[in-house]
Structure formats: structure tokens, C-alpha cells
Design a protein that fits this description.
This protein is about 40% helix and about 15% strand. It is an alpha/beta fold. Keywords: Hydrolase, Signal.
Length: about 280
Amino acid sequence: MRTRTRLARIATATAALGAAAVFVAVPSSAAPQQADHHAPAKAKPTIVLVHGAFADASSWNGEITRLQQRGYQVIAPANPLRGVASDAAYIKALVDSVDGPVVLVGHSYGGDVISEAAYNDPKVQALVYIAGYLPDKGETGLGLTSKFPGSTLGDTLQQVALPGGETDLYVKQDLFPKQFAADVPLSQARQMAASQRPVTMSALAEASTDPAWKQKPVWDLIPTGDKNIPPAAQKWMAERAHAHTVVVPGASHAVLVSRPDKVTDIILNAAEATTK
């Protein structure tokens, strides 16, 4: 009897070991795999903010804060304001140093610069113009400003002769708030007037070359209270470039300072479009 009981126990244990062996032998790869239908997310572009004449990189402070809060890498270089071709080469060198895609944003004369800097550059995914020039080949800032009535800039300029025959242009400090930044608090507008960076007269008269806005998606913000570049000229250029356009009623040429929320929104629209 004891022998039979012992044999039964052995048989039971052997069967259990066999079942365990079968279970262990099943490879994990035999389980059905779920297909991953989600494409990898595209990297966020670096936002490069190019200021224009009579301004400096601090004009972008409101946008920099908001963009950084949204997780974007931001660079706001000092635009030399010496000439379209040389300034464009300077910005292009900066873009080339960035790892990954870029959205280029230009204010005022900075529009001339980004139009040339981004030409034939696959790294630049989109162009954003803020109260800016969108010149075609052969056009100048001065020519586009005078193409439509409305600019009062010429009467406010102060000329400073430089060694070598070049001329720097400033907006006269007492006229700067009304001319450039009418919707900016007066104390801040006066600070901007004191710290403005001059542009050379030859830069505004320099003809542009082939523009990148013919190759890339374009966004354009137009302030209707602009006294530097007539809103009618900005509208004409935006339509020619088939730009996604936002109009900010009553805003001044310094809309990037007075309305950083609106300017940030259009930059985000361009940046997010590049990641879809």
C-alpha cells in the first residue's frame, strides 16, 4: 500500500514538473505584439528672433519669456544693422550653428534680413514677419516704405556721419515715443529711444536678392497704427507672399513690445505648424 502511495506521489510530482517545463519553455516573443501606429513626434524648432532698425534684442523680452514657458529654445541675436547681405550672412551663420529645425522671425528691417538668410536653407522651416519688410529681388526698404503713403519716419531721423563716409540713422529721442512706440508706456518708450541701435542709410537702400518667402510657409503680423512702414505696404507684401496674416488694430511699429501676447501667438502658430 505504501509503495502504491509513493508511486502516485512521484507520478503527480512528475506531471507538475512537466507542466512547469512546458510553461517555462514558451518564449516571451511568442506573445502577440501590438503594432505602434504612432509616428515619432517632430522636434520643436528653435525660434530665432531678429530685431530691426532703431531697436535691440531686448525688444523681444516678452516673447522670449512666453516661448520659453512653452518649452521652446529661443535665440535673440544682435542684428548688426550694417547691410542686408552682411546682416543676412551673420544670421545664416547663427542658424547653421543650431542643432535641428529653425523658425526665423524678423521685425521691421529684420524682415529683409531673414528673407535673404533663409534662402535655400532647408533647416529654416517657416518665416514670421512682425511689422516687417517682405522684399522681392531688387527691392529696398526705402522703396517699399515709400510705395504707399503713411510713413512719417523720414521727418524724425537724425543722421550721424561715420568715418569712411557711411551714415548712421537714429530716430530723434524726443520724437521716438510717438513715431515708433505710441502704444508703449512713455517711460519705457523713452528707455527704448535712449538704447536704440542705429541702422546705416545704405542698409535701407540696399537691394535684396532672391527671397526665402517664395520657398517657405510665411506668417505676417500687421499693426494698423504703424508710422514707420505703412500698413497698406505691409498688407500688399503679405498678400504677395500668400502669408497667414494677423492684423492688430491700433498697434504701433513696436508691437513686439506693446503686444507680446499677439506676437507670441503667431510665432507659436508657425512653430506648431512645422511639427505636424
